[in-house]
């Protein structure tokens, strides 16, 4: 009887540690905040958080995690955002989140999830007092999201470097993804009369010229 009670108690402790605890999650959050602003995890705390879970701050999985939290500002998590995302993931410890990192990376392989994360990245990364994203931030985010998957990314980045563009707006941002998914590398299916933003028309002309072709030839 005593043995059964001991096993029961031990099982209860295991069950308690394996189930999600909002209190434990909040205590974990507090490890990364300071007394002056206990409800916000800032850049210093973010650096320690990334170190604890073994992920570089610029790793794309951090963007996916921010998406899960619906974080509003890059480099910051509010208490509300932290609880929203980690409650959904049922993570209240470092190890539990580490065990979910592959799941988070896997979301990028789902077409609809990737599109949602890509669109989210625009508002997440832009300065909140601006409606557009500055070109350097845009290039960094494009590298993160499309660099390994879009064969024309390097050329597009080179085009942006020599272009007049200093910012990218949301319509341009969303169309870059659509372009990367639908237009072949040889541009043979690009419709010059299509409804693409001027930026992408100019990119096509620039790329064709750099390949030694006139802009009219596909």
UniProtKB/TrEMBL annotation:
It is found in: Nucleus. InterPro entries: DCN-prot (IPR014764), DCN1-like_PONY (IPR042460), PONY_dom (IPR005176). Keywords: Nucleus. GO terms for cellular component: nucleus; ubiquitin ligase complex. GO terms for molecular function: cullin family protein binding; ubiquitin conjugating enzyme binding; ubiquitin-like protein binding. GO terms for biological process: protein neddylation. Residues 20-208 form the DCUN1 domain. It comes from the Eukaryota. Neddylation of cullins play an essential role in the regulation of SCF-type complexes activity. PANTHER family: DEFECTIVE IN CULLIN NEDDYLATION PROTEIN, RP42 RELATED. This is Defective in cullin neddylation protein. It comes from Agrilus planipennis (Emerald ash borer). The lineage of its organism: Eukaryota, Metazoa, Ecdysozoa, Arthropoda, Hexapoda.
């Amino acid at each position: 009887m005593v043995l059964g009670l001991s096993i029961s108690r031990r099982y209860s402790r295991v069950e308690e540690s394996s189930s999600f605890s909002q209190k434990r999650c909040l205590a974990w959050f507090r490890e990364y905040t300071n007394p002056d602003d206990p409800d916000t995890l800032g850049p210093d705390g973010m650096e320690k958080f990334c170190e604890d879970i073994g992920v570089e701050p610029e790793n794309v999985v951090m963007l996916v995690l921010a998406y899960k939290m619906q974080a509003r500002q890059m480099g910051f998590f509010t208490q509300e955002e932290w609880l929203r995302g980690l409650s959904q993931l049922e993570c209240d410890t470092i190890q539990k989140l580490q065990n979910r990192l592959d799941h988070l990376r896997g979301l990028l392989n789902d077409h609809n999830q990737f599109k949602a994360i890509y669109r989210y990245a625009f508002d997440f990364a832009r300065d909140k007092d601006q409606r557009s994203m500055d070109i350097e931030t845009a290039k960094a985010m494009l590298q993160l999201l499309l660099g390994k998957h879009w064969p024309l990314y390097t050329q597009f980045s080179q085009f942006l470097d020599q272009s007049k563009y200093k910012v990218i707006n949301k319509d341009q941002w969303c169309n870059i993804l659509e372009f990367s998914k639908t237009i072949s590398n040889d541009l043979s299916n690009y419709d010059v009369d299509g409804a693409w933003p001027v930026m992408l028309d100019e990119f096509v002309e620039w790329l064709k010229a750099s390949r030694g072709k006139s802009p009219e030839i596909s």
